[in-house]
Fold this sequence. Notes:
In chain A, 71% of the residues lie in helices and 0% in strands. By secondary structure, chain A is an all-alpha fold. In chain A, helix 7 crosses helix 8. In chain B, the strands form 4 sheets. Chain B has a 7-stranded mixed sheet with strand order 1-4-5-7-8-11-12, with no helix packed on it. Chain B has a 7-stranded antiparallel sheet with strand order 2-3-6-9-10-13-14. A 3-stranded mixed sheet of chain B has the order 16-19-18.
Amino acid sequence: MHTQVSRQGEDTRLWQLFREGDRTAFTSLYNAYVQALYNYGRRFTTDTALIEDCIQDLFIDLWRKKDQLADADTPRYYLLKSLRNRLLRRLNQRQRFASSGLTDEYDFQVEVSYELTLVNEQWAADQQRLVNRALQSLSKRQREVIYLKFYENFSYEDIARIMSLEVASAYNLVSKALDSVRRHLPAAYAALLLILLIA
Amino acid sequence: MDYLLFTATDFSLDEHFQRWVLSPDEETHAFWDTWLLQHPEKTADVETARRLIQSLRIGTEPLSETQRHRMHRNIMTAVQENEETEADVVELRTTNAVFRRWRVAAAVLLGTLGLAGTWYWYANRPLVYQTAYGETRTLVLPDQSKVVLNANSELRVRKQWQADAPREVWLDGEAYFEVTEQLGGQAAKFKVYTRDLTVEVLGTRFNVAERDKHTDVTLNEGKVRLNLNTETAGREIMMQPGEMVRFSENGQRVEKAKVKAEDHSSWTKNYWVLDNTTLADIAARIEATYGYQVEINDSELAGETLSGVLPTQQIDSLLEVLAISYDVKVRRENTTIAITR
């Protein structure tokens, strides 16, 4: 898990410099975000070439349009939203050729993975299976908000902006997803999980 | 934020709490460590919430160095080319800061005039306040008490307020009150008369909601006394902050429960809080607030319970949030709303 809070000041400074045409700052932004972008992209598709393509286009356009970018825009949410739009557009184009033109058809896959310590290896593997089964039972939108909330640690407001939803929808989706996950987890397992995660 | 009333689910949804679990810093640590020391009875809920969040450790695969470099090279090549072709394009960037500032000033001025205008209008009107479907209104009474009137409701107020008489208002529908404290004599009392009961208060904040089959009074702050309009007249109930009293008309039944009072008046801030609320209840509330007829033909769906929030300022966003959050189909036609799976 990342700690984004401490990054914020640094990001704002890099963003400012990049908008003034500083290529070193541009490269720093790339380095800081390419992994997060790739991770996010991988949730939508296994086609890594397509993801790379979209990330490249995203940064090229970013440079081209640097004069028009807003001051207050925080790069993290802006970049993820932009990648999402690009990727869904490309995936949709493909889909249209394959079947009918549904705009809201996309996939979003997440899986949890725990560090398997020697003491609890078997148990952790079981636990992992349970949580993954729970995640599998969620809708794609629920999986996506879970990812943005608990992996990327975005605020409800940013999640709403990235996914083009109302803030209330983002909040409700997280609430409902957590509820389902919780129902899939037996209480006894939950108690052990704590020991594992602290160890 | 009253964390004392939080359940495990509430904690896991709270952003400050999430920050403490996922990327703790000095501030979140200081706050939650201290808070837990002061409220050891909440340890179990906090632990459940913490474990739930931590169980969601999503796995990702690292980008290879080759991929990272390949993309970077392609990007920088394109940037270089772009730079060369655009070298002679003149940059046109105007800053409208001055205009923007004037616009803000104008807006503030208009807002102030608007408020003054609204006040003047209220002061010279016969004192029957009504709201249409989908509308809420904030009123300031002669004693400076504040009333927020919910949609499809009516509040009647005497035109002249006597200096030494109880302050009295009559309500049909739902309203939230912030009553000013008045010292001494009869004027210290503030009374709200409704179909089912009378709420009598000193200075306080509370919500009164007349529904089809019951009336709910929720107390946020202060103290109130309820006088029920039962056959055995004069029955009184004292309420403490955080309590809700539900009076059912037909059965003459009275229930008292501990609730999150702020949730019951959240409509004054343009949202509803759902807490295991059935879809049927939400439908009834939409009918009462916006005047649509809501149809749920699937009885199982009608009984499904939802938790979360719904924005109430516009019916369209409310319906959109409902549809997206709970995976239902919502269709609005003229005066009817149909909810299906």
